[in-house]
Amino acid sequence: MGRDADGYPVTRTPGGVVRGARSARDLAAVDDRVSGCRACPRLVAWREEVAEVKRAAFRDQVYWGRPVTGMGPADARIAVVGLAPAAHGGNRTGRIFTGDRSGDWIFAALWRAGLANQPTSVSRDDGLQVNDVRIVSAVRCAPPDNAPTPAERDTCSPWLARELQLLPRLRVAVVLGGFGWSALLPVLAAAGYALPRPRPRFGHGVEVELAGPGGPLTLLGSYHVSQQNTFTGRLTEPMLDAVLQRAVSLAAG
C-alpha cells in the first residue's frame, strides 16, 4: 500500500478497501486509511474539484478535499450514522458534520443530550469533543448533488463495517435518513446481526433491537438533519432530541 504526498496510505480499488479495512487494528488505522482512499473515481473528481473551485465565502480557506473520517472514542456505546460529507462542510473542514447547517443541528442536539462539550462545530481546532458517541457516515466522500450511487455506497461499506467492529461497547445506532439505514443493514447482517424478515423499514422514531455477536444492538431511525427536513419542519429540535435521549437511555440501560 503506497502513500500519498501527505503520508496517507492510498487505496484505489474496492478490493483494496476490503483489505485495508479488514487489516486495520484500531480506529486510528481506519481513519488513516479512509483519508487516503481513492476507490471511487467520480467522488474523487468531485471532492477535489470542489476543493479547488471553492465557494466564494470560503475562497481564502484551504479545503480538506479528502474522504472524511468518523469522530468519537473507541469506548462509545452510541453510533450516529449519517449519509456523506457536505461539499462545503466536511469536505472543506475535514471533520464530519462540521461547517454546515446540518452540523449545527446535530452537534447542538448532541450537546443537549450530554454527548458533546459544546453546541457548535465550525473547524477541526475549535475544541469540540464528544463522549460516548462515534459519528460516522455511510459514504466518506462528498458526492455530487448529495447523492452517492449504490455502487459507491457498497464500495465504502467496509470502512463502516470495520469502524463499528472496533466499538466493542456499541449498544445503539442512531441512523439519520433512509440512505444511511439502507447502507447499515447489510453491514450489520454481514457482521452476524440477526435481521428480521422482512427487513425493518426506515422511519422517524422506528426502533429495532437486533441480536448480534457482541450483544444486542438497537437501531433508532431519525429523519436526516438536512436543510430539506429542518427548514420545512419535517424534523424539529424536539423530535431529534427525543431520539437522542432514547439512545442515551438505552445505552445506559
From TrEMBL:
- Leader sequence range is none
Q: Which residues form a coiled coil?
A: none
The portions of this protein that span the membrane are 172-195
Repeat listed as a keyword: no
- Which controlled-vocabulary keywords does the entry list? 4Fe-4S, DNA damage, DNA repair, Hydrolase, Iron, Iron-sulfur, Membrane, Metal-binding, Transmembrane, Transmembrane helix
Kindly indicate whether the keyword Membrane belongs to this entry. Answer: yes
One of the Pfam families matching this protein, by short name: UDG
Q: Which domain of life is it from?
A: Bacteria
SUPFAM superfamilies according to UniProt? Uracil-DNA glycosylase-like
Residue ranges annotated for the Uracil-DNA glycosylase-like domain, each copy included: 69-244
Homology family? Belongs to the uracil-DNA glycosylase (UDG) superfamily. Type 5 (UDGb) family.
Q: What is this protein called?
A: Type-5 uracil-DNA glycosylase
